[in-house]
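Before a colleague's protein record goes any further, I have to sign it off. Alongside the sequence sits a line of tokens, each denoting a local backbone shape. I want your independent view on whether this chain really folds as the tokens say. Where you disagree with what is written, explain briefly why. This is what I was given:
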Amino acid sequence: MTMASSVFWTTLSAIASRGLFLVRSIVMARLLGREIYGQWGIVGSIVSMLAQYSAMGAAKTASKHVAELKTSDPIRCGNVLSFIFLFTSGGLFVMSIAGVVLAKWLAVGIYSEPALTIPLMFSVLYLITLVMNSLLQGVLAGFNDFKHMAGVAVIQGAIELAVTIPLIMSLDLLGAVLGAAASFGVSALLFLRRMNKLMKQHNLSMSLHGAWSERKLFWSYTVPLTLSGGVTVPATWFAYTLTTNLIGFAALGAYVAADRFRVLLLFIPTTMKQVSLPMLSEALGNGNARRFRRVLWASLGINIGIAAVGALPVVIFSPWLLSWFGPTFREEWPLLVILAFAAVVQAGVSILSQVTQSSGRTWKNFIFNSTYAIILVVVALLTIPRIGATGLAWSILAACIASFIAHGVLAVVLMRKKKLFRHE
């Protein structure tokens, strides 16, 4: 599949599925109210943190290695997939138990909100389906199967909208958790069916013995990817928790509403990563430096351009857009303006970071992400006590700018010194 075709299908799925995502978020906010919607934001941040340690960089690892090996070395490709699925399953088992055991302590001891206990316990279902959905998407991206991924993304969004709303009306926050788990579960099953078909077409197979032979990936690729996200996601959770403890769940609810537009702006750029990473990895594996640079700069321009075009109307109409979530959200429009700028910067980071991912320099991503996390936490500590949730938005923007500069400098240095196509 060509880059143009891949971009078309990912854009199509982004428009449809993220449109449904925004509608669902608006309805959720209106049904739950600003306070409980803030609690939903906390549940989501905890699930994201557990997912990071469960998945262990599985989706990116799968995407890179399937793209590189599916044709040149199918036996090893099957072994890599065996390793990834084995370790992801183990990580999910451990993190699911941790989620259930820690639910009451988090709800009562950290947030002083006993009503959060049951939703946090059931959020492990959301965790399991989310992680498996992400992993299977990574595998399909390695096969360049973006047309099928586009169709499933739309189905997942439609199911989430149809199922979550009635569940919220009857079970409130717990209904939101169960609805998310159900929609991602259906999506994962569809992705699994497609993966099995593609593996047969490419004569790939998985085995436990083969998984063990690829254990070196654990230290060379999986661990640094896990640690990279393992410092950023907890930093975001810390900032969320600081906001709720100092200002309240309602303040976080306003931020989460504004952040939905940032997620919407980033969905096409984020999906573009699934297109560009396999292409960069394939070019690297073939030693095609010219194609590598062409894909990198084209993807960077497309990502920033798409995000900027989308951010402009979001900034202009920010008060009106936030009012969709409810009358009490409108007054928090500065959050949306700040986060729209952050989305543009983050769209560039998502591409520049793939220089290190595709070339196996994943430990450098850990260093960059540690810097991101430190800046986020420091700015949050300085601003949230003074200006509330607006400080949380500023901390995200500051961390994104620092990350963009660091990744950009490294990418330019590696290509100028021609170190990209050999290990240091």
Notes: Residues 3-416 form one domain. The mean pLDDT is 85. The longest helix spans residues 3-55. The radius of gyration is 21 Å.
